[in-house]
Design goal:
It contains 1 helix and no strands. The protein has 2 domains: 37 residues; 32 residues. By secondary structure, the protein is mainly alpha-helical. It binds zinc ion. Zinc ion binds next to helix 1. Zinc ion (ZN) binds next to helix 1.
């Protein structure tokens, strides 16, 4: 029973609880790994958005200054 699912052998058939548990563990590990990859990327994307917002703000300020000086 404890050898079930080891070495790719399953003696309990497709409804084997050991197999289901292992599939669940692999799935959860994959989700955690995926989230671990996504989190810093989201931070990076947020930084990029912040930089873009600052650039547009700077462009807007320059245009306002030009508009004032142009009159
Ligand atoms: Zn099994």
């Amino acid at each position: 029973m404890t050898d079930c699912c080891d070495y790719g052998k399953c003696t309990n058939g497709p409804d084997c609880p050991v197999r289901k548990q292992r599939a669940k563990e692999v799935n959860e590990a994959f989700i955690r790994l995926h989230q671990g990859i996504d989190d810093p990327y989201d931070d990076f994307a947020a930084v990029i958005k912040g930089v873009i917002a600052l650039v547009f703000l700077a462009i807007g300020l320059v245009m306002v200054v030009f508009a004032i000086w142009g009159k």
